[in-house]
């Protein structure tokens, strides 16, 4: 079922005769549980036309590097094969996404696109909508509850957002049917990159190559589903009690796949619900409340990647303590290379650099310590965003921006006042030692360094 609330007309053009219906794939890089794709097929079948999917492979996505592109291209190869099996042609071109869609839309009766919440994604869609001479229809598929339906404004915290989204869930936790195109598109002749050999394409792209590909995680829906099956079978039961223990490896590892749209949050939710596990409530809160709160943040707050995104109380208290004496102050180079006095923080940074994904609890500690060890809170915010975006596979994402901002007081409340942090929540190494065997975590990362370092 595709709810009307997911569908939004971005311009006022009338449908054209056209040779095909064009789906501009960008955020939802998958064929399964993709509302935008299924909507495209339905509209094409009504018009008795084939479906063409296009993807603009830009080399200029802000802060993206070799690590991110390798993971993405691995998934796109799988997407192309899956589309071909359904009689859908996929066109990949090495240019800015809005240019790709504008070139191909000349022969389209209408264009469908998925939804992105970041500044650049909204810019691309806005530019295309103003220049297309056929309808541009946006279909939201990377949240369970459409962002404006979940809340009409930026939410203060998970506590204010939770009851609002929970009231809507029953209407949206519904399986998405799979449609088959009536007209096969395989005979259409349209120029495209051959992404079957994605490593060769990767070699030819002008990218930041300072961050290497990772071997711990591989891209694509197949890999995402493998991780999800393992999580449900072996980890979900104990998720509530072990999710904050980085030595237990009890997370779903869905965040990189969700970031690239390689798996649907709706599909994840429905699969997890089938398990009827003791860990269900805790995991669903992470997937549906915390993650979709981050979409709310990025959509309603245009400063989502800057210090100005923080609530007024947090900015005020941090600035009041900006001149407090710091026992340790580290440069970006020292932090990036994990050269601090704190072995726990260094291990977290090393995990980030090598695996492309840091454990969520250590990620909170990591961000708090950057605040503690930087000359100013503004500099700390900038450094945390930069390192998160550079090394995390799920960096440059509403969830990542919200996670960094949380370390500085976003979606939180004032706590007892203390030096440097003011009323922003503090985290200490002693807290890690009380919660789990943090030295075992350091040893775990040391082994990772021996293998990949």
Structure explained in plain terms:
The structure is a single chain. The chain is of the alpha/beta class. It folds into 3 domains: 1-141, HUPs (Rossmann fold), CATH 3.40.50.620; 143-175 and 220-300, Serine Threonine Protein Phosphatase 5, Tetratricopeptide repeat (Alpha Horseshoe), CATH 1.25.40; 307-452, DNA Cyclobutane Dipyrimidine Photolyase, subunit A, domain 3 (Orthogonal Bundle). The protein is 49% helix and 6% strand. It has helices at residues 35-47, 66-85, 97-104, 119-131, 147-150, 158-172, 198-204, 221-235, 239-242, 255-259, 265-275, 280-300, 312-320, 332-336, 343-355, 360-372, 377-391, 398-407, 429-435, 438-452; strands at 7-9, 20-24, 51-56, 89-93, 108-113, 136-139. Strands 1-6-5-2-3-4 form a 6-stranded mixed β-sheet, with helices on both faces. Helix 3 packs parallel to helix 4 and helix 16 crosses helix 18. The radius of gyration is 22 Å and the shape is globular. The N and C termini lie far apart (47 Å). The model has no long low-confidence stretch (mean pLDDT 97).
């Amino acid at each position: 079922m595709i709810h009307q609330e997911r569908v939004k007309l971005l311009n006022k053009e009338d449908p054209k005769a056209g040779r095909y219906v064009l789906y501009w794939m960008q955020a939802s890089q998958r064929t399964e549980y993709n509302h935008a794709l299924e909507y495209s097929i339905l509209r094409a079948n009504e018009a008795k036309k084939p479906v063409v999917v296009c993807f603009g492979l830009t080399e200029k996505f802000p802060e993206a590097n070799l690590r991110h592109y390798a993971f993405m291209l691995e998934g796109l190869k799988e997407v192309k094969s899956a589309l071909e099996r359904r009689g859908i042609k996929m066109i990949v071109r090495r240019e800015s996404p809005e240019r790709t869609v504008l070139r191909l839309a000349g022969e389209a009766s209408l264009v469908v696109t998925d939804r992105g919440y970041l500044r650049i994604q909204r810019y691309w869609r806005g530019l295309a909508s103003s220049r297309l001479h056929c309808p541009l229809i946006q279909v939201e598929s990377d949240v369970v509850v459409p962002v404006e339906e979940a809340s009409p404004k930026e939410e203060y915290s998970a506590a204010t957002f939770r009851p609002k989204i929970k009231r809507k869930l029953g209407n949206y936790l519904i399986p998405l049917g799979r449609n088959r195109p009536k007209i096969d598109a395989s005979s259409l002749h349209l120029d495209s990159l051959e992404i079957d050999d994605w490593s060769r394409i990767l070699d030819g792209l002008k990218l930041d190559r300072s961050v290497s590909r990772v071997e711990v995680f591989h891209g694509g829906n197949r890999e995402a589903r493998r991780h999800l099956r393992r999580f449900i079978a072996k980890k979900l039961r104990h998720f509530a009690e072990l999710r904050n223990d980085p030595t237990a490896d009890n997370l779903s590892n869905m965040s990189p796949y969700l970031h690239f749209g390689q798996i649907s949050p709706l599909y994840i939710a429905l699969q997890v619900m089938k398990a009827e596990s003791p860990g269900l409530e805790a995991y669903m809160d992470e997937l549906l409340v915390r993650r979709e709160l981050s979409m709310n943040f990025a959509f309603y707050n245009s400063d989502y990647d800057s210090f100005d995104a923080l609530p007024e109380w947090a900015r005020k208290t941090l600035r009041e303590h900006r001149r407090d004496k710091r026992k340790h102050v580290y440069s970006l180079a020292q932090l990036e290379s994990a050269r601090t006095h704190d072995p726990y923080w260094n291990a977290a940074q090393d995990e980030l650099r090598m695996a492309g994904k840091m454990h969520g609890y250590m990620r909170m500690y990591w961000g708090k310590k950057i605040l503690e060890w930087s000359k100013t809170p503004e500099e700390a915010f900038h450094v945390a965003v930069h390192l998160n975006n550079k090394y995390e596979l799920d960096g440059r994402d509403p969830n990542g921006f919200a996670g960094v901002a949380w370390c500085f007081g976003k979606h939180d409340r004032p706590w007892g006042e203390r030096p440097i942090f003011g009323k922003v929540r503090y985290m200490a190494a002693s807290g890690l030692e009380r919660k789990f065997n943090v030295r075992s975590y350091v040893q775990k990362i040391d082994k990772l360094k021996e293998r990949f370092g």
